[in-house]
Amino acid sequence: MANNKTQCFKCNKEKITYPCEGCSKRFCLTHLTEHQQMLNEELNHIINDYDQFKQRINEKKQNSQSLQNLSLIKQINQWETNSIEIIKQKAQNCREIVITSSETFIYDIEKKFNDLSEQIKEI
Fold it and tell me: For residue 36, what are the domain limits?
């Protein structure tokens, strides 16, 4: 009868062994179970690290977007304030022009009326 036993990678004893497809090493049933458990723990650790990293990236992304949005809103608010101030200045300039023009127009009409009145008196 052929001997189906090979050496376990972990305990170095001649036992019935099973291959690990990931690392291609052979383990007895006890050590194969331990090896599988260790690999599962490592995988869980990697998954946890990945999840934490992903969460930090999402937090940084949200914070960055919030800060960018806040900065953009501040710029828009400043643009609004500046625009309103410019419009107020232009409106005041237009008022002054209208008032000055009206006064000049009334003065000119009044002068012409007085001149006409003087001419009529001379007739």
Answer: 6-122
